Amino acid sequence: MSENLVHTVCAGDLEMEYARIGSGPKPLIVIPGLSIKSVMKSAASLEGPYKIFKEKYTLYFFDRKKDAKPGYSLTEMADDQVAALKALGIEKADIYGLSQGGMIAQYMAIRNPEIVNKLVLGSSTSKAEPQQLKTIRNWARLARARETTTLVNSFIDDCFSEKFAARYRRALLALYKEISDEELDRFAIFADACDYVDTYNDLGKIRSQVLVLGAGKDLVTTPEASVKIAEKLKDACIPCEFYMYEDCGHAVFDELPDYKKRIFDFLEQ
């Protein structure tokens, strides 16, 4: 059951849920992107897709902090994530951030480079592109208007490739059943923060090897955003690998098994 995998870490007045999977000696921190429902609700479903990591890594999947108020910023999310790791006794780890999680991971690596061993950024951005502003602001508007059905369908169509969405829409709709007003409010708060991502000029402060993964049909952060991150890191002489999944949507990390194998190989180098 998911609840057996989910724990709470406290640091001062910070409370944050996380799911722990695997029993390997190396910690791998996974910071998910925006989700209408917390991944903690379906933590058990993470075990299969991440089974390749479970022998060599202990994976920690983190939610955002419990008591998030409007105006909660990406830098605050990053600082809270670092505080949560320290409270768990994790001094250094591989960090994998997806979408908004990648924005948080960038701030962590810039503000606390000593905590990051290797960094993986999936479908992320260092500066909001016009398409991102349009897409995510629309999600936030629908959430606040309580237009749940429209929000869920827009989220699916924006995040996944057309082929994947057509094939799995029924399962995805089932995943987002019974969304509460509290969940919609939290989603809108976290969505607002994406407008202000601004790490581009500080990427040279990162001190770890980086793997940047983009998606050629990304309708959220855009493929161009991933290209810009990779080019900026290489210009700053930061060791960086880059790969673009040309025919996939924003949530390619959920579409292709090859995605996690590529991450595993990078971490094991």
3D architecture notes:
The chain is of the alpha/beta class and 269 residues long. It has nine helices and eight strands. 41% of the residues lie in helices and 20% in strands. The mean pLDDT is 96.
Briefly say what this structure is.
With 269 residues, the protein is α/β, with parallel strands linked by helices.
The first-to-last residue Cα distance is 34 Å
Strand adjacency order, main sheet? 1-2-4-3-5-6-7-8
Annotation field: number of helices: 9
Number of strands: 8
- State the CATH superfamily name: Alpha/Beta hydrolase fold, catalytic domain
* Quaternary assembly: single chain
Overall pLDDT, averaged? 96
Q: Main beta sheet, described?
A: 8 strands, mixed
CATH level 1 class label:
Alpha Beta
Question: So what's the overall shape?
Answer: globular
User: At the third CATH level, what is the topology name?
Assistant: Rossmann fold
How helical, in percent, are the residues?
40-55%
What number of structural domains do the residues give? 1
List keywords for this structure.
alpha/beta; 8 strands
Topology:
Layout: E1 6-11, E2 14-21, E3 26-31, E4 57-65, H1 74-87, E5 93-98, H2 100-111, E6 116-122, H3 130-144, H4 148-159, H5 162-175, H6 181-193, E7 209-215, H7 223-235, E8 240-245, H8 252-255, H9 257-268
Helix pairs in contact: 1-2, 3-4, 3-6, 4-5
